[in-house]
Amino acid sequence: MKNKQSKTPLLKTCLIQLIFSPLYGIEEFIPQIQKELRKTGFLETRNNENKTVSFNKSIDNPVITEDKNWFFISLKNQEIVSINKTQFSLQTDNYTNFETFIERYKSLLEKFFPIIDSSTITIKQLGLRYINVLRGQKWKEILKDSYHGVSIADEYRDQGKPWMIASTAQGMTTIDNSGNTGLLNIRIYQNNKGNETPLDIFYPTPQISEDEKLITFFDIDHILRFDTEKEIKAEELIKFGRKLNTLSSKIYFDALNKDAKADL
Question: Is 173 inside a domain boundary?
Fold first, then answer.
């Protein structure tokens, strides 16, 4: 995927996420992880806690789960490593090409795995997500009709409170040569306040467009679930990441109208 600023979809954020079996007590590894990540340019560290309430047996006996997240942020906020007890992810707003991005992730995994002793965890899934931002009213001229979905009439869009709507969502199950199953989700959603940052992704500071208030996200999210209990090395995970990228890239270019493709 190219990151070319034109009237075609602009790749805003690329994110790769590894999910593994819960690593309780991950807090004890954070100082060493931070030390290693600082050597590779992640100079700022933030953390937060998320509380989830569930009712397993009765509404009178809620179960409260607390998850702590650590964010390691590079200069100019262009790269972020996110870690909690079940995931290790890298996101970038400075994407140039997939090989550079995936090799960067591999180098980070090779620092992370020895610290936590990756032989003690089970790899559950690997996900690759491309979030493209389309600014203004011409997004339908860029994407094919099959991706337009249902739209709210323009005369109603500026009434009431700020909104975030899903215009369309499509999904499919994928299977790789190793028998692992995956899920590919494609979503188109919008807001009318110029917010260029999806609500479910951490950004150190909000990114608001001053020129165009209608922001359309073209979000391609491909997840591969592993059916094996064996340890998966960083090099193997990178190969699976390339498989995810192959299909995601085809989807991206297929979604563009002929004129939009000509601009690439």
Answer: yes
Asked if residue 114 lies in contact with residue 33, where contact means CB atoms within 8 angstroms, the answer is no
Contact indicator for 136, 214 with CB cutoff of 8 Å: yes
The 10s digit of each residue's pLDDT in 178-194 is: 678 888 999 988 888 89
Look-up of token digits 């890298």: 90
The β-bridge relationship of strands 123-135 and 215-225 is: antiparallel
DSSP state of 203: -
Query: Is residue 171 a part of any domain in this protein?
Result: yes
Token digits of residue 166: 């899903």
Task: Give the structural domain span for 108.
Answer: 10-262
Residues linked to residue 42 through DSSP beta bridges, in sequence order? 74
For residue 175, give both structure tokens. Answer: 């299977």
**Would you say residue 158 lies in a domain?**
yes
Placement of tokens 């970038």 in the chain: 92
| Assigned domain for 4 exists | no
Give the model confidence (pLDDT) of 124-136 as tens digits. Answer: 999 999 999 999 8
* Closest among 109, 129, 244 to 176, alpha carbons compared: 244
Q: Mean pLDDT over all residues of the chain?
A: 85
pTM here is: 0.86
Total number of domains constituting the chain: 1
CA–CA distance from 99 to each of 16, 238, 254 (Å)?
A: 13, 10, 21
| pLDDT tens per residue across span 46-99 | 998 875 555 555 555 666 666 899 999 998 889 999 999 999 999 999 999 999
